[in-house]
Amino acid sequence: MRERLDCAVLDTPEAYEWARSWIGRHAGGRLYIQALDDQPVAARRIDPCRTLADAAMQLRRYDVCLIPVSESNLAWARTALQAAQTVLQTPVMGLVRQLKAAALNDLYTLGLADFVRDPICAEELRVRIEQLLDERRYPVREPLTSSSAVGESQAPYPTAGPGETPQENALCASILGRSGHELEAYAIATASRCATSKESFRAAKSKVVERFERAYITAALGRHSGNIAMAARAAQKHRRAFWALMRKHEIDAAPYRSESPPPLRAPDR
């Protein structure tokens, strides 16, 4: 976890004013949001084709660029993102207000990395940025096959299922080391994303619970080298219940165990 995340808020027409209140330090000083002041406000607002492209070099000093987007400046945001696709290296996140799912999907295709809705939860924003940066720094690895040699410090990396993002996959891979605030923020972010789709409450909840169970069981087995009894005890679950979850998610403990030493041979006489 990074000690501090630096975010630049881009001035956008008709939407920047309601986002200004977030400029400052948040999340106990671990999230620092400041305005991007490289160009006059009027210049940035008049020419969206040059806004992000011209600021690409300066934005390298920041972990992420935040763009306030609402229905009133949606067209402006689309143009700015599209014009900067080939030159911008800093990930862009949207601070969105009253946008529909179709508009968000359109922004994703133009290069938006993620978004949070107004009113903003500072802890959620911090966790979403952490996940985004982890995804860029540690790309998702190929899963190990059953024939791979797995030592004590090595365990299969859980792979993303249908509809799951690499950010979710990265978080689940280290779920036992995450704090309660991070897991809560992840749950809020996932629920918010599902609510913008046509997915029902029951289906969305079932998907989140299933993903959590699979990630937790996998991480517990990896931490205890495939020892089911020890993993169940650490999870404070009965061994039969733990085993039932393994069967439910088709998780095999064998790949998490250390290679067995070769059997001893009787000395030749």
User: What is the N-to-C order of secondary-structure elements (H for helix, E for strand)?
Assistant: EHEEHHEHEHEHHHHHH
Q: Tell me which CATH architecture of the largest domain applies here.
A: 3-Layer(aba) Sandwich
* Outline: elongated
Radius of gyration, CA atoms, in whole angstroms = 23 Å
Share of residues in strands: 5-15%
What is the name of the CATH superfamily of the largest domain? Response regulator
Entry summary:
The protein has 269 residues and is an alpha/beta fold. The protein is built from 11 helices and 6 strands.
Report what the structure shows.
The protein is α/β, with parallel strands linked by helices. It is built from 11 helices and 6 strands. The chain has helices spanning 16-19, 41-46, 48-59, 74-84, 101-109, 122-137, 166-173, 180-195, 201-223, 228-234, 239-248, and strands at 5-9, 24-26, 31-35, 64-70, 92-97, 114-117. A 6-stranded mixed β-sheet has the order 2-3-1-4-5-6. A hairpin with a 4-residue loop joins strand 2 and strand 3. Helix 3 packs across helix 4, helix 9 (201-223) packs across helix 10 and helix 10 (228-234) packs across helix 11. Residues 38-44, 138-160 and 259-265 have low confidence and may be disordered.
